[in-house]
Design goal:
Blueprint lengths: L1 E8 L2 E4 L4 E3 L2 E4 L1 H8 L5 E9 L5 E10 L2 E5 L18 E7 L1 E6 L8 E4 L14 E9 L5 H21 L8 E6 L3 H6 L6 E8 L8 E3 L2 E2 L6 E3 L1 H5 L3 E3 L11 H5 L2 H9 L5 E9 L4 H17 L4 E5 L5 H15 L3 E8 L20 E6 L3 E4 L4 E4 L21 E4 L21
Parallel strand pairs: 1-8, 2-4, 6-23, 9-11, 13-18, 13-19, 19-20, 20-21
Antiparallel strand pairs: 1-12, 3-4, 5-11, 6-9, 6-10, 7-8, 14-15, 14-17, 16-18, 22-24
Length: 428
């Protein structure tokens, strides 16, 4: 499979009479976009706002972030199961509006959503303080149930992202990035002498609005499977979960998975990157055992010698992470785990709910329990009254002056478990 990403660099957003891109500025026709989204009768209202880096703006509660993409040629449309049909993606040419994001917000699932500050001490914690953001504020009808409200918001975000990209098809790309993934039979014999490495990609799928969608199918309804990394870049994996904002893999992050990018950079030089194994995170022990055994069986079948395993979420999913690690190591597959920590505000508590002696190589996205004070912002997009009940907030988080005291758990992408965050470390 061969995929070309034709990237147009977006430097500025504005509203105007026609949706188009010229010299790095994306102009958006609000009325046209509003009509498109209100075609979903479950929405009572929709409005739009803009947020640029460095401006005194707070956006919350953010439900999802999506990078605008659409197909230029070759196969099914992006976001299969939602925008296009359900045929395979990951080939041909895809247009990308780089440097911007669509952020969805609204009182949809109040407790579990995130904060994006475009400036101040909270900005370095979220990657979306550096993007030019079109914020879509959604209001579902009062009679719409929670799971329907989540679905409505998810689809509205995808429609918006696809609409923006599709209106820019005539523009010239600033750069083109090409990714290829060969048939497995060919991949197995390529690059002799280099270790065969796979990526075990854990998806949140515990239900009760903790869901991820693959080709429009809830991940908990399927067994682990092998997927081309180029399919992920075309939107085969979509976020539908409402877990803690710090470590949820929103759709933007799936599209730009930095683990996949890093494996591609090392492919043919240090490693032989032989594929992605999607697996789910389950509630019952039997389901955890089934999925972990199946995922590692697939790795063994294709001759994997080492694997990167990334988690999504924390607590209960830590057991899935450890099961994948133990079974891989016992099968002779060396592992590197990517997770984050919930070690208490002082960092002294146990970081994960489960552990194993086999897990000797672990990358952390940071401690989500660390606290930060976010100063007042000149403008609020959305509703900051949820600060006391958002995951990472507490009674009194919102202060009378408009500042917020929260754990970084409340900030979108702060401790992302794919490494799509800004937290670093230094040696002391």
């Amino acid at each position: 499979m061969k995929l070309e990403l034709h990237k147009i660099a977006i430097q500025k957003l504005c509203f105007g009479d026609a949706t188009k891109v010229e010299k790095g500025t994306l102009t958006i026709n609000k009325k046209e976009l509003e009509a498109l989204l209100l075609d979903d009768k479950r929405l009572a209202a929709v409005s739009f706002d803009l947020a640029h880096p460095g401006v005194s703006v707070r956006i919350m509660p953010v439900k999802d972030a999506i990078e605008p993409r659409c197909k230029l040629s070759g196969g099914n449309e992006v976001f299969p199961g939602f925008i296009g049909g359900v045929d395979t993606v990951g080939e041909g040419q895809t247009l990308v509006l780089e440097g911007m994001a669509v952020l969805t917000t609204g009182r949809l699932v109040a407790p579990q959503e995130g904060i994006v500050d475009m400036t101040g001490p909270g900005a370095p914690y979220t990657p979306f303080s550096a993007t030019r953001n079109l914020v879509v504020v959604l209001t579902p009808r009062d009679d719409v149930k929670l799971h329907e409200a989540e679905e409505t918001c998810r689809i509205a975000g995808l429609k918006t992202a696809h609409y923006l990209a599709s209106k820019c098809k005539g523009a010239k790309a600033d750069k083109v990035s090409t990714y290829e993934f060969p048939p497995l039979a060919q991949a197995m014999t390529a690059h002799p002498g280099l270790p065969k490495v796979a990526y075990v990609y854990m998806l949140q799928s515990q239900g009760l609005l903790h869901d991820t969608w693959v080709y429009g199918v809830d991940a908990k309804r399927s067994l682990p499977t092998i997927i081309s990394p180029t399919e992920v870049m075309d939107g085969a994996v979509i976020s539908g979960n409402c877990v803690s904002a710090c470590d949820k893999n929103n759709t933007y992050v799936h599209l730009n998975n930095p683990i996949i990018e890093a494996l591609y950079k090392r492919h043919g030089k240090e490693i032989n990157f032989v594929g992605v194994i999607l697996t789910n995170e389950n509630v019952t022990l039997a389901d955890k055992q089934r999925s972990s055994s199946y995922a590692i069986k697939l790795a063994k079948m294709i001759g994997v010698e080492a694997a990167v395993i990334s988690e999504e979420g924390f607590g209960n999913p830590d057991a899935d992470l450890v099961l994948n690690c133990v079974k891989a190591e016992k099968a002779g597959i060396k592992t590197v785990l990517v997770t984050d920590e919930y070690a208490g505000a002082n960092g002294a508590s146990q970081s994960l709910a489960d552990s194993c002696v086999e897990g000797t190589a672990v990358v952390t996205g940071g401690n989500a329990n660390e606290t930060v004070v976010l100063p007042p912002m000149a403008k609020i997009i959305g509703d900051d009254s949820t600060a006391d009940i958002v995951a990472g907030g507490f009674f009194g988080s919102k202060r009378p002056d408009g500042s917020l005291e929260v754990e970084i758990q409340a900030i979108l992408g702060a401790t992302n478990e794919l490494g799509f965050n800004k937290i670093g470390a230094y040696t002391i």
